[in-house]
Amino acid sequence: MIAVVGASGNTGRATVKELWALGEDPLCVVRNAEKAREVLGADAKIAVAEVTDRPALEKALRGMQRVFVVTGHNPQSGEQQLNILEAAKAVGAKFFVKVSGGQAMVGADAESPVGRGHHMVEEAMRKSGLGWVILRPGLFMQNTFAQAALIKNEGKMALPFASDLPLAFIDTRDAGALGAHVVYEAEKYAGQTIAYSGLRSTYGDFAKVFSEVLGKPITYVSVTPEQAAAALKARGLPDWLIGHQLAIAKIAAAGGFSTENAQPIRDIVGREPISTKQFVEDHKAMFR
């Protein structure tokens, strides 16, 4: 039996849907059953448990042999995922698969608390006695959802990345599909760290794709970290999340997200990764 913790998020729901396609009926461990039903459908097998509630997690995970974890960013995400790991061990699970961050952002001294949390959990996984797999996706195309209002209203994207900076984007649907195949065949991948992405592009080229698909000019504007921080603050984002996003931009500028790793999508999922054009086509209603 497979459990997906964080099943209602973008990557989690893609993982669940791919597992269904593989003939599995995973347990979807979520915080909000109503939201989970909305995004996964009425037939999804759902258990409700807060990631801070060890007894509830143990109850939800009882009987599960493989646990896939992809929870949201927050300053306590490391402690929360350690809680999930300990619950998995307590109920006798055999494998633990985690969606982590890119190698350049993960470390004991990482600038972002999210990167430090990923490192803490990865180290605990290696010492847990469970079979483990660490997944390192590229930059999610779905991050552009935050630009939807700007694209709609002003015909532009504004981010703290150079327009010609090479970046390895990935659609969360590809990230979830790969994760599903890995947890489905966990024995095959146990002990591996797998980095994967779509085809390398740039934000300048991404804006051109938006222009083509939406049928109107979309201009890409490279802003300074200070300008980005001010814009994020105006949107009401907390300081830790602003700091995290600026840390990602800083790492990217140094080439930390420039390596294309599309082959694992081809080898493990068995198809080409979703292109930026396909991504915009599939979500164009959001940006119009």
Essential attributes:
Rossmann fold, 48% helix, three-stranded mixed β-sheet, alpha/beta, seven-stranded parallel β-sheet
CATH superfamily of the domain at 2-137 and 171-196 and 259-271: NAD(P)-binding Rossmann-like Domain
Assembly type of the chains comes to single chain
The CATH C-level name of the domain at 2-137 and 171-196 and 259-271 is Alpha Beta
- Proportion of β residues? 15-25%
* Secondary structure category: alpha/beta
Please count the helical segments. 13
User: Which second-level CATH architecture of the domain at 2-137 and 171-196 and 259-271 applies?
Assistant: 3-Layer(aba) Sandwich
Strand arrangement, major sheet = 3-2-1-4-5-6-10
Which fold name corresponds to the CATH topology of the domain at 2-137 and 171-196 and 259-271? Answer: Rossmann fold
Q: Please give the radius of gyration in angstroms.
A: 19 Å
Task: State the shape.
Answer: globular
Mean pLDDT: 96
Helical percentage: 40-55%
